[in-house]
Amino acid sequence: MAAVSGGGPRIPSVRIGPIDLAARVDEALAVQALAFGLGPEEVEVRRHIVLRHLDHPHARALGATTTDERLVGFVYGMPNERGQWWSTVVEPYLRATGCAHWLDDSFVITELHVLPEFQNRGIGRMLITTITDAVDQPRSILSAIDTESPARGLYRSLGYQDLARQVLFPSAPKPYAVMGAPLPLRRGDRHRGHMDFRPPVSPG
User: Fold this and answer.
1) Angle, to 10 degrees, between the axis of helix 123-133 and the axis of helix 150-157?
2) pLDDT digit string (tens) for 75-132?
3) In the chain, what is the straight-line distance between the N-terminal and C-terminal CA atoms, in Å?
4) How far, in Å, CA of 51 to CA of 71, rounded?
5) Contacts of 25 (CB under 8 A, 6+ apart)
6) Contact by Cβ (8 Å): 60, 14
7) What predicted TM-score, i.e. pTM, was given to this entire model?
8) How many CB atoms lie within 10 A of CB 145?
9) Distance from C-alpha of 160 to C-alpha of 173, rounded to nearest angstrom
10) For the chain: N or C, fewer Cβ within 10 A?
11) Alpha-carbon 160 to chain mean position
12) Is the C-alpha dihedral spanning 179, 156, 137, 25 positive or negative?
């Protein structure tokens, strides 16, 4: 169990550790609704999606909780499988950029959210690095809204790079980018040179 110190007398310390996300799904979705701007109907749809994902035998979840057990952030993910809905949507985009192989042997970060008042304290960074440190896959993939947001900046600082952009999900109002990073995720040294994420091409 890791800890993040408080940011002042009104901002409590936070602990990072495993949670029973299925049991706390409503708390988690309340965090996501505030962090992501979801309405009640969207929350209900995502509730069913989260519970279905958690049926995966290798799904993992971590929470960020205060000393009084308030959930202020969470992350969950699972080993990617080609037959999963997300994979079927992003596969054509990744194939077009020569990155479809990233769908294999990867751990996908399905959701990562932190309450707005607890952001910019390293909680999201600790959630994603802690969950990926514990997996067997050699790399991680995720999707994020395709705009220059703080979330995209965080992912880039951890080693994620764009694999495909302007990815359209059914019913999503904005396009997404699919990003990938080798594991373990980068610590410090944010200015390393660009890595080519495409597969090697055989000579001849």
Assistant:
1) 40
2) 999 999 999 999 999 999 999 999 999 999 999 999 999 999 999 999 999 999 999 9
3) 52
4) 17
5) 47, 50, 51
6) no
7) 0.87
8) 14
9) 24
10) C
11) 11
12) negative
Residue 74 identity (one-letter amino acid): F
Q: What is the 3-state secondary structure (H, E, C) of the chain?
A: CEEECCCECCECCEEEEECCCCCCHHHHHHHHHHHHCCCHHHHHHHHHHHHHHCCCCCCEEEEEEECCCCEEEEEEEEECCCCCHHHHHHHHHHHHCCCHHHHCCEEEEEEEEECHHHCCCCHHHHHHHHHHHCCCCCEEEEEEECCCCHHHHHHHHCCCEEEEEEECCCCCCCCEEEEEEECCCCCCCCCCCCCCCCCCCCCC
Q: For residue 37, name the pLDDT band (cuts at 50, 70, 90).
A: confident
Task: Determine if the peptide bond prior to 40 is cis (ω within 30°).
Answer: no
Q: In the structure encoding, which two tokens stand for residue 1, read together?
A: 């169990």
In this structure, are residues 71 and 63 in contact, taking their beta carbons and an 8 Å threshold?
Answer: yes
Retrieve residue 131's tokens.
Answer: 């969950």
**Residue closest to 55 by CA, chosen among 82, 76, 32:** 76
Cβ-proximal residues to 120 (8 Å cutoff; 6+ apart), any chain? 150
The tokens describing 114, both together, are: 């932190």
